[in-house]
User: Which sequence fits this backbone?
């Protein structure tokens, strides 16, 4: 039994107990990942081709390792201009091991994973709301500026002195 799945903008042919190096996906070592974008499934000669995806199909994999690919060196050169630029890049990758290929019942697997994630999110939101309440309880100190009143007094004195000089002459 094998399946063709789509992840990270690429398509991979996978079989059970096979290791696969794919674009980085979120998850720690030992976490299970469910792929829903299944293009084709072959089960002992019986082939299902999706248009564009096979309905209710899923592939379950376990994250083995988060790693990085080989360094790729990029060099830009403009001839006769004495202009060069060198850049390096390492792609983030994830090594996964295929545990199960489900031709039907994939939506049930996804529903179980969604419930687990929702429970984790609820516990995190409760903790953050308690912290925010304590921050709001602190009174803010207000600062008022009296600089503007001083400036008006100095300008009025200057105008008075100018008027007196013009009257004497």
Assistant:
């Amino acid at each position: 039994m094998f399946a063709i799945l789509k992840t990270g903008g690429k398509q991979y042919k996978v079989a059970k107990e096979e290791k696969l190096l794919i674009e980085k996906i979120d998850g720690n070592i030992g976490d299970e990942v469910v792929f829903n974008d299944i293009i084709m499934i072959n089960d002992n000669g019986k082939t299902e081709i999706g248009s564009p995806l096979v309905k209710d199909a899923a592939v379950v994999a376990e994250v083995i390792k988060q790693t990085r690919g080989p360094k790729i060196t990029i060099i830009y050169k403009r001839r006769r201009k004495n202009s060069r630029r060198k850049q390096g890049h390492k792609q983030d990758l994830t090594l996964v091991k295929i545990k199960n290929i489900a031709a039907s019942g994939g939506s049930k697997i996804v529903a179980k994973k969604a419930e687990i994630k929702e429970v984790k999110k609820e516990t995190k939101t409760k903790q953050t709301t308690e912290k925010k309440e304590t921050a709001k309880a602190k009174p803010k100190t207000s600062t008022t500026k009296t600089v503007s009143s001083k400036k008006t007094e100095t300008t009025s004195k200057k105008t008075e002195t100018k008027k007196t000089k013009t009257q004497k002459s």
